[in-house]
Amino acid sequence: MPKPSSQSNTVLGRRLISGENEKYIVKLFATIRLTQEDDGEPRDIDIVNDKELPKEDDEDFEYMPSGKRYVYSQEHKLTAIDYFQTIWKVLKDRTHERMSNRYAARKLKISRKLLRDWVKNHQMIL
């Protein structure tokens, strides 16, 4: 579940990239991977320990998972879907746009196909 806070980074009720909810979800996924593997994915330890990470503004960069297989619960999958569908980014002209599948998968350190499949399966259930 997204972490409630008295401070939210929202505009017109939209959660924005690099807000508290995004940090919480990214940290949640890093923690899941570290509980299943000692080293997890690259920089998972830094994420869990709240170390400052370099900004990755390149929308075209695609994250390639290390090949290790991780097990995510249904709640984690729903959290990832909610994250992908409700976080927005502010463009240079101050308009808002949904974040891309590529960006969401890169932040969560999962493949784009896996995120796309989770969304597709969730929509079939509804």
Describe the structure.
The chain is about 45% helix and about 10% strand. The chain is an alpha+beta fold and about 130 residues long. The chain has one domain.
Distance between the termini: 19 Å
Category by helix and strand content: alpha+beta
Q: What portion of residues is helical? A: 40-55%
Number of domains: 1
Percent of sequence in beta strands: 5-15%
Pattern of helices and strands: EEHHHEEHH
Number of helices: 5
| Overall average pLDDT | 81
Instruction: Tell me, briefly, the overall form.
Output: globular
Radius of gyration of CA atoms, rounded to a whole number: 14 Å
**Low-confidence residue ranges:** none
Number of strands: 4
Key descriptive features of the protein:
126 residues, alpha+beta, four-stranded mixed β-sheet, 5 helices, 4 strands, 45% helix, globular
Give me a quick take on this structure.
The chain is an alpha+beta fold. The protein has helices spanning 20-36, 44-48, 74-86, 101-108, 112-125, and strands spanning 10-11, 14-16, 87-90, 96-98. It has five helices and four strands; from the N terminus they run ββαααββαα.
Helix and strand topology:
Layout: E1 10-11, E2 14-16, H1 20-36, H2 44-48, H3 74-86, E3 87-90, E4 96-98, H4 101-108, H5 112-125
Parallel strand pairs: 2-3
Antiparallel strand pairs: 1-2, 3-4
